[in-house]
Amino acid sequence: MHTVIGARQGGARRALLLRGCRIAGEIAAEAGRDILVGENGRIARIGSRLDVGPDVAVVEVRGALISPGFVDVHQHLDKTGVLRFTPNPSGTLQGAREAFAEYARKAPEEDVTRRAARTMARCLARGTTAIRSHINVDKDAGFNGINALARLRSEWADRLTLQIVAFMTPHPNQDLAWLESNIDAAVEQADAVGGTPAVAEDPIRYLDILFAAAERHGRPIDLHLDEHLNPERPLFDAVFERVREYGLQGRTVLGHASVLSALPRTEFERIRDRMIDLDIAVVTLPAANLYLQGRSHDMLPPRGLTRVAELIRSGVAIATASDNIQDPFVPTGSGDMLEIARWTLLAGHLRGDELATAYDMITKIPARMMNLGADYGIREGAWADLVISDCEDVSALVSAGPDCMQVFAKGRPVAAPAFPAMAAICALENVP
């Protein structure tokens, strides 16, 4: 495999033919497929030995695997990269919430913009072409985060699909009246309505505020639900009632749902069946749940994840995502969704023969949650958001990852970052 040359002339977009591909999910006999990317950045044709004119740049990819771009359906771009400024000595969820709240009181919009753009660039270079980010709106952060991300959503539209969740964040002694009076202004800038009911002082009233705003603005719901392991206070039934009341079947996503792993099997199965009935999706966040949960257990600390394997094998739509990247909630992270898929398989008790399932959890399943529709995937008319790799198939892509990879975003190659000094040294030593 080699880097694409000639995709643009004089800065103008040019049609491009990727010849000799293997398309992710197709059978091995289909190797040798061609993908024509139009000047508009969308996939124009898919076939075998396509004929194109002399104005089309042709690149022989020699059997490389072509996957649609990865989808990170749950991030927190307003928090990314603040680790060194926000110590969390306890390593707990509440410790992380308090640390970021203190930082958010003095962080200007420019700070959020700079950190978020850096993480977006890192994610894109690693194959992520769509992100949904929860952005705090509360008395501490105000509207700084959501204003910054709304601008980035527009500025990056030619490279990356960004959706914003108005994450109406309750804190102790910050009454719900403030959130209720500000939610409309926040949701006007957002693509979805979100929040974290388990930490609200009045979870039922809080849920009513969120669902009513979603109905007024025609937005879907994306909640952090029961990100804890206390079986005495799950809020699933309250959510289910409002999903049905407000007609949000198929438009509700529940992040974390950690408490499902702490409930008796019969209760879990009852909740699972209602999720299926209401077409509610789930997102597991292994990095955060492994890091934050179970620290008070003296013996056999729990993994902290929801029942990943049982949910997906039962037909619940469940994706996996990064959650936080280098902040008090998750001190690590590179924006690599293949890494997250591996963590999910290992920590979520998937089997070795379910590597392709973990791949689906970072591609087509979260794409449906974001309602990307016909814009996503290896299909004619979709955006040419592509990951080209030297892997044999999607199982190999997840299990070991590529030695060589090229990312396309809306039909244009994404340049991999490099140190100019290193390039000069390689040239001196005749290193290719």
UniProtKB/TrEMBL annotation:
Residue span, Amidohydrolase domain: 101-414
Signal peptide: none
Entries under InterPro entries matching the protein: Amidohydro_3, Metal-dep_hydrolase_composite, Metal_Hydrolase, Metallo-hydrolase_Enzymes
Family matches, as PANTHER family: BLL3847 PROTEIN (PTHR32027:SF9), CYTOSINE DEAMINASE (PTHR32027)
Identification of the protein by name: Deaminase
Originating species: Sinorhizobium medicae
